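This part of the workshop introduces the protein records we will be handling. To make this concrete, we reproduce a full record directly below.
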Amino acid sequence: MGAKTGEAYIQRLKEAKNNVYIHGEKVDDVTTHPAFANVVQSMAKLYDLQHEKPEKMLYTSPTSGKPVGMTFMQPKTIDDLIKRREAMVEWAKTSGGMMGRSPDYLNADVMAMGMNNSIFAEANPYFAENARNYYEYARENDISLTHTLIHPQVNRAKMQHEQKDANVALHLVEERDDGIIVDGIRLLATQGAITDELLVFPSTVKKSGELDDPYSLAFAIPNNTPGLKFISRESFSYDKNPWDHPLGARFEEGDTIVSFDHVFVPWERVFVCGNSSVCNRTFTETNAVVHMAHQVVAKNIVKTEFVLGVALSMMDAIGIDQFQHVKDKGSEIMLALETMRSHLYRAEHNAKLDASGTMTPDFNALNAARNWYPRVYPRLAEIIRILGASGLMGIPTEADFQHEEIGPIIHRGLQGKNLEGYERVQLFRLAWDMTLSAFGSRQTHYEYYFFGDPIKMGMAYFDGYDKEPYKNYIKDFLQQTKTTTRVH
């Protein structure tokens, strides 16, 4: 098939009839349901963009010779790495970086696991072959993916096997000749309602021991697999038009709880089965975390550019750009942007070939960026709120402007220095939707916890950092003072 179109993406969802639930009801067709219809259209535009800009978004498959998505590409040179990132940026720009789980995130993941698959062979050589085959299948059919990593938040002080209800989390029930049976609950599959398939992988944050082997699983299955249910949280789209909710109405991805009711997974779709050691090392030893972080940093640069653009537009709209504190806040965003760009440049230009022949970015740079951005993004959102002040509270809807009696009143009363009332409110509604609406609040929360608890991530970053050179530097420095200073 090769790279699909937006129409093909929508048709697949219609035909799949995935088991999706929201607001206490089962969804008949996610492509027309008010909670999902707009984001489905936004996703469709991503796939259409591949064909509108084939020179940037497509490349020739090494096996089929068909045009396939650039974001699936195994980069073999630094130029390849940059080309893949430029395709990721094209997608991110369509939403201002507000779609955190656009398809490229997991496309990079399955590429890395497919190429660096030897870890899966530790239990069975067949599992490594499965990972390689799944990468090719996903690439050649342009599969859209969601994924789930974490167990329910029952008692975080205990491991899964120690829980009062040890069967609530997804676990292995039975191994059969043709596959495995799994049962339980997993969190938190973003875009679970609007994708083709589900990747189940272990968390990168909390390691498992041998007693947690029944919960140590990795596999991929279609979203319409019997027994599989996606239970979506409340939609933040609210069925509003894009003028009132310029982000939420178009890019509300949805987050889902995933229920497995004795789900059958064929062996050819299994990568890890009951092996906590492999699960604990999967993301690191396949370099999946590196390639996923590469996509995330590229996306977050676009997101920061978008935040900066909104901030500068607000300053200009109401004439506050001459104030000292406003300039200082603007420079905070600029510094965040340039810092992220520097991390990305270092990551790409220090990239090296791994054992599979995949050009892999410098993880030191990406790891710093992915640990830093969750701490800084809440501040960026806060700056937008401070700059908007009361202007983010007085934001009538488009219907108010269209009203014969009150429309002219608010158009005049809410004018800015350089914008008429209608245009100024439209801009400020964008700032509100990015930071203060349910969609905007979710964005801040989402970025903060993107890779897990930032404190635990920081601890892991500290523990893994090469500290010896710096301690030796001080030791040598003090040693020099002993040779030049006399003790009386």
About this structure: The chain has two domains: 6-285, 288-471.
